[in-house]
Design a protein that fits this description.
The protein has helices at about 20-25, 30-35, 75-90, 110-125, and strands spanning about 1-5, 10-15, 65-70, 95-100, 105-110, 130-135. It has about 140 residues and is α+β, with helices and mostly antiparallel strands. It has a four-stranded antiparallel sheet with strand order 4-5-3-6, covered by helices on one side. A two-stranded antiparallel ribbon has the order 1-2.
Length: about 140
């Protein structure tokens, strides 16, 4: 470290040797420093066991529901238009997820006759479709 002294217009510098411990004493200790300097013991303090249980209200949780996945062989714009129009004509609730390579359509209905008629109607537009049953 360097200490500067001013004597009139003459600036004088002098090297002052401080040890690291001297500097460390001047800096106030934080709680992290105090924690780091704790002595390590050969024993551990006793701890109480703590048990907790919750009574969950599961009335809002819906049970699993049977849903059908409509697997179609085409993913072009015209086929998607025909598919959406057909689904709307049958008044079937659906979720359509379209990516670059595939289409996944979730149908929310239990009416098997409507599903069979839907597949037959899609064949008119040259769209081959299969149904898969899933539980969500």
């Amino acid at each position: 470290m360097v200490k500067y002294a001013s004597v009139g217009s003459l600036h004088i510098s002098q090297n002052i040797k401080y040890s690291f411990n001297d500097i460390k004493k001047e800096i106030p200790q934080t709680w992290q420093d105090k924690l780091a300097n704790f002595k390590v013991n050969d024993y551990y303090p006793a701890a109480n066991e703590f048990y907790m249980s919750f009574n969950m209200d599961d009335s809002a949780v819906k049970p699993k529901q049977k849903i059908y996945i409509l697997d179609v062989n085409k993913n072009d714009v015209y086929s998607m238009f025909c598919l959406k129009q057909t689904l709307q004509n049958f008044l079937v609730k659906y979720t359509l997820i379209r990516s670059k390579n595939e289409v996944v359509i979730y149908l929310d209905t239990d009416n098997k006759q409507v599903l069979k008629n839907l597949i037959e109607q899609l064949k008119i537009y040259d769209i081959d479709a299969n149904l898969k049953e899933v539980w969500l």
